[in-house]
Design brief:
about 350 residues, five-stranded mixed sheet, two-stranded antiparallel ribbon
Length: about 350
């Protein structure tokens, strides 16, 4: 019996020694792997997340400083121990209760900011009264503090937003812009400039002209081509492109005031930018152009489709030019333009 017990002890000790050596080899490999990875990183700072710091601090505390100096390779032992101390401090840190009046609810703050942005002439008391109509009792000083936190000026200094201005004058505003199309000619690939005007209220578009050289002569003639379209309008939105020259301005109808957009601010002329995206994505970018004649034809075909067959989300997903209602039953047919690039679906008449 004693012999069997001694044999078991010997086997157990041999097995324990083997396991210890295996663990030591694994640790040595992982340490060396970390050193290799650290060499790959070089002098770049290793950025750890809070979760990663917590995990290292939890494991490192158990090892102690002396053992950490042997195995820690990506951060110093002092750093790991400092993280551990911060974990202990965070555990015993309780949130402090605020002293004084509680903060304004997020919903009321959003309403205050919205009212101030949509109504540039409204002062603190006017906004306070509008909130009272919504069953929100807020002091004028609270309105002032909320606007100050959001960087909004008081009523006399607060400017009218671009959106509010456009909505108030939608029926009197047109915008203009260029877009370019690449077409093959006998001399190779050439850039063609297309000038258009867009009525913001109806979304109607007028193509004023196309050229490879948008000089003063072309700009003046383009305005003449679109003069009927511009009659009765009060404002013209355009960017600061130098192609909009003095001769272009002189050819415009009397009383048409120019509204120049800020530099590098395409959203200030968003309706024109959206039209350019539409005509390119739906038509021009889907074909290869050889010469000006096919390009002109495609632009006018798209213009017909745009006005009579394309629904527009900006006007309630309706057509710009309403047609007589067709039959509500029957076979559905497709009306094609440009070989099927543009399509309109309707029911066949009997």
């Amino acid at each position: 019996m004693a012999t069997d017990t001694l044999a078991l002890r010997v086997v157990f000790l041999a097995l324990s020694g083997w396991v210890h050596r295996q663990q030591q080899e694994v640790v040595e490999y992982l340490v060396e792997e970390n050193r290799v990875l650290k060499e790959q990183i070089g002098k770049r700072r290793l950025r750890l997340t809070d979760d990663q710091r917590r995990r290292l601090a939890s494991k490192g505390k158990r090892l102690g400083r002396r053992l950490l100096q042997q195995v820690a390779s990506i951060v110093s032992p002092d750093t790991i121990l400092r993280w551990h101390r911060l974990l202990i401090a965070a555990k015993w840190t309780y949130p402090k209760r605020g002293i004084g009046r509680p903060g304004v609810m997020l919903e009321i703050q959003k309403l205050i900011v919205r009212m101030a942005q949509e109504n540039s002439s409204w002062g603190y008391c006017r906004i306070q009264g509008a909130l009272k109509n919504l069953s929100h009792k807020v002091a004028a000083s609270t309105v002032r503090n909320v606007l100050k936190e959001h960087g909004l000026q008081p009523a006399p200094k607060r400017s009218t937003s671009w959106r509010t201005f456009l909505r108030a004058h939608m029926g009197q505003v047109v915008s203009t812009d260029f877009f370019t199309v690449e077409a093959w000619t006998r001399r190779g690939l050439r850039t063609h400039y297309v000038l258009f005007f867009l009525d913001l209220e109806s979304r109607r578009v007028c193509f004023a002209g196309m050229t490879r050289k948008p000089n003063d002569r072309f700009m003046e003639q383009a305005v003449r081509n679109a003069r009927t379209f511009l009659e009765g309008k009060r404002f013209l939105i355009l960017d600061r492109d130098t192609k909009f020259s003095h001769r272009f301005h002189g050819a415009l109808p009397d009383g048409l005031e120019l509204l120049r957009t800020p530099f590098q601010a395409p959203n200030a002329n968003a309706h024109a930018e959206r039209f350019v995206r539409s005509i390119k994505e739906e038509c021009l970018n889907r074909m290869i152009w050889f010469g000006e004649a096919p390009l002109w034809k495609a632009i006018y075909k798209y213009l017909e489709h745009y006005h009579t067959e394309r629904n527009h989300q900006g006007i309630g997903n309706e057509l710009i030019q309403e047609t007589a209602p067709g039959p509500s039953t029957g076979r559905v047919v497709s009306r094609e333009r440009l070989g099927g690039v543009l399509r309109y679906y309707e029911r066949a008449t009997a």
